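Lab notebook, bench 4. We co-purified these components, and the gel suggests they stay together. Before we commit to crystallization screens, I want a quick structural picture of the whole thing.
Request: model the full complex, all chains together.
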Amino acid sequence: MHPETYKPPALPSPFSTTTSPPSLITQGAEAHLYKTCFLAPDTPAALKIRPAKAYRHPILDRRLTRQRILQEARCLAKSLREGVNVPAVWALDWEGQGGESGNGGAWLLMEWIDGPVMRVVFERWEKFLKRNQGSLSEEDVAGEESRVRGLMERIGRAVGGLHKSGVVHGDLTTSNLILRPFVGGSEDATTGEGEGEGSPSMEGDVVLIDFGLAAQSAQPEDRAVDLYVLERAFGSTHPKTEPFFDSVLKGYEQSYKGANVTLKRLEDVRLRGRKKSMIG
Amino acid sequence: MLAIGLEGSANKLGVGIMLHPDDGSSPQVLANVRHTYVSPPGEGFLPKDTARHHRAWVAKLVKKTLREARISVDDVDCICFTKGPGMGAPLQSVAIAARMLSLLWKKPLVGVNHCVGHIEMGRLITGATNPVVLYVSGGNTQVIAYSSQRYRIFGETLDIAVGNCLDRFARTLHISNDPAPGYNIEQLAKKGKQLVDLPYTVKGMDCSFSGILAAIDALAATYGINGPEKDEEVDSEKSVEEGGKPTRADLCFSLQETIFSMLVETTERAMAHVGSKEVLIVGGVGCNERLQEMMGIMAQDRGGSVHATDERFCIDNGIMIAQAGLLAYSTGFRTPLKESSCTQRFRTDDVYVKWRD
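Here is the predicted assembly.
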């Protein structure tokens, strides 16, 4: 991203008039994520805006944007109802400023989840291992590994819980999982960016975010693809954690009845990915 | 270094000559000759007929190319040919021609991946250094980005290619295949006004087009506007929602708007993923000006730019094979006669790209 040359589109009302304006966190392909507040200034909120795509025919653009933001909100609401750790949906408008005067964009206001994303946790852990390669005893290394295994097992359980609620995520990467520290937990875990000296804290709840590609499904196929995407994400972004991926699957297996059907399907999906051959 | 390239993976037979000057100055196109096998309206090109066309024309085209480039056979360093992917029979006829030239002239062979040929030619012409590539043609639909010695496929079609979808709808409407069905659809679409509802099938980074084709074929049949154009067609005053009937132009317009939106969306996702701001469009469908325009708007919104070329370089040609072949040749790559076969299935990411950092 190049903030010096890039200007995001104007915010829809009422966010254009919020004092201390929403701050842009990230720009994805489809949406912009802002941090703002909800009702009270001390209630932080995440605002996801899907701007209208100027390249698309306006009718098509409205149809797609509406479909997608509603799908995202419904998936979040459903999994929250089933007790999965996901941000709560607070408000949404599928036509930007509403009605015919709307710019065709849409927004979704959600609970703000504190804590670093898993990508940061694992990156810090990998850095810590590298920095202390010489000084760690075999016991220390084994201890570190079991801590990571523990976290990965909890990730597996979180994904299992989501699938149990009848929702598949569609884009499971370590950037879409947040480690929310326990209230009153160690300070270390609350700072995502800080370059801590020690091994990062792995205490906290695993929270799933970004349901932009989520869908309601209980098919073993869709669930297995979810796991396969997560496996590839671990392999490509955190090579050192890849050998522990079986811990994710172990946690997943224990999370709901019928998980073993999905795991069986995962074996087929893996083979398919590798042998994918060009057709057409 | 000088290379002659032979391409014939589909209905275009192309022969071209590329020069990479020894002093390291920019490569030059010395000749770019093409002959297309055009099938009658309502029909596609069959492999056996296309292969017959290529066999009949290849010697003439090679002679013409040498004449145009004003070079003699002695100047040629290597003979590059399309190894795949493509239609079997046409690929084989051109591979045989390349082998024949190699034995006759005693020059080494270089087998080239067709998709890599498109990418390298696009990079050369537009000067784009490290773009996200959208490769769209009658046989391929891929979103590609380069990373550590491979052109990696980020997204692709799950069934038919986008160009195939357009070609086959042109067949449904009996639109002329001359110069190309896609070009004629593009011209007709300019007269289209209303958007009809079609499926929109993006799955993550991948697209699917077969369902859209079935849906629009069914629409054309429902309104009785498939088959050859009838004289009495008049512009309906009412819109489709009000019980009116769409025109042939409306269908072409809707098809283009829908499938191009899907392509731009997946390309944008790949750009966000790899953090690139440049897009390069290659392949026959890349000539479409509406696609280029949509991609331009998207790239601009991201603070980037789009690179595209015209029909000389977009549509299958011989120089792209010569260009990619020369790059491989300069790193020491050769295809021994024994291995100079061709294959219908040859993935873009199978090629080890030794010539890039």
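The longest strand of chain B covers residues 28-36. Worth comparing against the SEC data before the next meeting. Chain B is about 40% helix and 20% strand.
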